[in-house]
Amino acid sequence: MIVADKKPIQEIIETIQNHTRILIMGCNECVTVCEAGGKKEVGILASALRMYFLNQNKDVSIDEITLERQCDHEYLEEIRDRVDQYDAIVSLACGVGVQFTAEKYHSIPVYPGVNTCFLGATEERGLWTERCQACGRCILAQTAGICPISRCAKRLLNGPCGGSSGGKCEIDKDIDCGWQLIIDRLKALGRMDAYEKLCPIKDWSTDRAGGPRKVTREDLKQ
Amino acid sequence: MSYPSNIRILRVPCTGKVDILYILHAFEKGADGVYVVGCMEGDCHFTNGNFRARKRVEEAQRILDTIGIGGQRIQMFNLSSAEGPRFAQIAREMTERIRELGPNPIRKHHPRAASFQLCPPKAD
User: Fold this and answer.
1) ipTM of the complex, rounded to two decimals
2) Does the distance separating the beta carbons of A82 and B119 come in below 8 Å?
3) CATH number of the A2-118 domain
């Protein structure tokens, strides 16, 4: 999932200083799971902001809503009939949701309430780690389910490098060497023959390095 | 044994039931102070409810400090349900602390409770 982290309340206060009718909008998907932008976090932020403005003796109204997602037209349409009541939206969705909301309701400023960090998994409650960099050409079949693009600091396709030491990466002693993990897993699966095959030069055109990307499915278009 | 009458007790089956929103909404509606009283650490009937409550109280303290209400207005205490005198002592201690801090700063501009509306969901 997309892993995000809450923005400091002080930063959000600075962005909404000059607005008086604000909607805090959460998302029921990834940001709920990483406890950064779901219904609970919307409630917490809204309550904190209301108290802040009451304490400043400013008349600011703060409403709350949590949509199922903010990256699909149908869900964003749910606020169509009341968006005029507000002069700003603080979206706690990931960067995708903030932008999609801003595109749809382009006459109202949409501010982010979380920092979108990476694609990752919940190792335990309170700990999320990166697993995927969305390179667009998945090679996990060759690397025993461990991704060298996201877990190797150098994104090597035929690792490890000389900096791999004691199973750790040279950039940080707490970061596992991605290639050590791959080799260990291939050994456990009895597939070291896959390691012997050289991985060819990667086509990076499907990665972000090739520019903003899209996926089209002619079979699905109406 | 007696303790100050300005305290409103809200009973919960375990402090793990105390949502951080209960605390924040209490201050939003004008409470001058809130304290959470849970079982001794290690004695929670539900194992870790009081640990969860402590984390939420600490988060509420940080939020209240950031927005200028003051994190000293919320605190958690741990005691056994058999410790009546300690309960009364905590009540007196919190009351004294809140008296020194003064009323909730929100109330100097808005003497009555604040109110808000949830953005209503679209009727299906």
Assistant:
1) 0.88
2) yes
3) 3.40.50.2300
